[in-house]
Amino acid sequence: MKTSRLRLQYLFDKYYNQTATPQERDELFAIIDAGKCDEELSRYIRQAWDELKPGEPLFDPERSSAILKNILGSADADTSKKPGKPLILWGKIAAAAVMLLFVGFCAHKYLRQKKTVQTQAVVVKRPAHDALPGGNKAILTLANGKTIVLDNAQNGTLAKQGATIVKKTADGQLLYNAAAIADNNPTPSINTIVTPRGGQYQIILPDGTKVWLNAASSLRFPTFFTGKTREVNITGEAYFEVAKNPAMPFKVKTNRAEIEVLGTHFNIMAYDDEATMKTTLLEGAVNIKSGSFNARLKPGQQAQITANGQSKVVDDVDVDDETAWKNGIFQFRDAGIDMILRQASRWYDVDVVYKGKIPHREFNGRIARNVKASELLNMLEYTGVKLKIEGKNIIVL
């Protein structure tokens, strides 16, 4: 159903004046997220931005903090609750950041043409170089060594391996259908799916388990499961929704740990260039083992294992932060610039070059992953870090 002009104006005005109910806010974001933001919404955003003047409520730090807290869903935006944690995005920065939250959806071309109205005008310049966001890209390697570039492959049946049929669905998933095995001692074939930098992919394994692979990751798995356990290997980052089968526990192996589950939802971040491997549980229960470390996680807990073998369990983790990538969002909470740029490097398929020391800044923010790299860098520059894109490099000045 098409959103009426009056309803759209009502929702935007309520949100802009910070009087929107949670339901009204969600309705507005749903319209934007669904790509329904037409010239009307663009005009409202542009008009609100153009009319801002020094001293108006949006520039008030207290109100800006409240708006950011409302949008980001982060208690960190309220500095009174966390002494010693200064709010990075304040004053004119907060005003710009509020508007930049629309960057991933629409109308940013208008914002880029506007100078911030403070003592010293600031212009957001169009970068001479930019990097496009990633997308559904992956390479499947079959047991016989044949490779299939999934982003180029047609929908439908891709291969048949024994009793297992491999299909690419219309919505870009890789689906394994394993028929009943007549042989009493079957031997499954081993397949591997690899996402490059700038790629992601979803696969449904033969047992119905769903796996989302982030950029620069891999999953090694059998064409059907047999024996007492279901075992897969990953590198990089993956989110699992494991099909329940108490008679055959599901195991995920990385280069640092082994995770065993019966049926649950969890995220594993195990990139080689990250100092800490993180396993975050959203639903159910998992056992994680690494050397002498052995822990059973509850929902909301995270196991952290460093490269030198130090391990611990962290309670009350914000699972939305850990799984935002799966939902098409960059979401950061007290994140260092170097960590953010590692994510950017993997998603935009670029290298990060530091001309000086790594800036020690903490950043809180949220932006869609479908924007160009320059949009993310524009947000980061509000912390005082100077960045630019040259060819396939992000340069930290």
Architecture overview:
- It is a single chain.
- The chain is built from nine helices and 24 strands.
- It starts with a helix and ends with a strand.
- The model is unreliable at 52-126 (pLDDT under 50).
- Helix content is 22%, strand content 32%.
- The protein has three domains: 5-111, no CATH class; 135-321, Jelly Rolls, CATH 2.60.120; 328-396, Phage tail protein beta-alpha-beta fold, CATH 3.55.50.
- It has helices at residues 5-16, 22-33, 39-50, 61-72, 91-100, 108-111, 319-323, 337-348, 373-380, and strands spanning 135-136, 139-141, 147-149, 156-161, 164-168, 173-178, 190-195, 199-204, 210-213, 217-222, 230-241, 250-253, 258-261, 265-270, 276-283, 286-290, 293-297, 302-306, 311-314, 329-336, 351-354, 362-368, 387-390, 393-396.
- With 397 residues, it is α+β, with helices and mostly antiparallel strands.
- It has a 19-stranded mixed beta sheet that branches. Strands 21-24-23 form a three-stranded mixed beta sheet, covered by helices on one side.
- InterPro entries: FecR (IPR006860), FecR_C (IPR032508), Ferrdict_sens_TM (IPR012373).
Task: Give me the secondary-structure topology.
Blueprint: H1 5-16, H2 22-33, H3 39-50, H4 61-72, H5 91-100, H6 108-111, E1 135-136, E2 139-141, E3 147-149, E4 156-161, E5 164-168, E6 173-178, E7 190-195, E8 199-204, E9 210-213, E10 217-222, E11 230-241, E12 250-253, E13 258-261, E14 265-270, E15 276-283, E16 286-290, E17 293-297, E18 302-306, E19 311-314, H7 319-323, E20 329-336, H8 337-348, E21 351-354, E22 362-368, H9 373-380, E23 387-390, E24 393-396
Parallel strand pairs: 1-8, 6-8, 11-12, 21-24
Antiparallel strand pairs: 2-3, 2-7, 4-5, 5-6, 7-10, 8-9, 9-11, 10-11, 11-14, 12-13, 13-16, 14-15, 15-18, 16-17, 18-19, 20-22, 23-24
Helix pairs in contact: 1-2, 1-3, 4-5
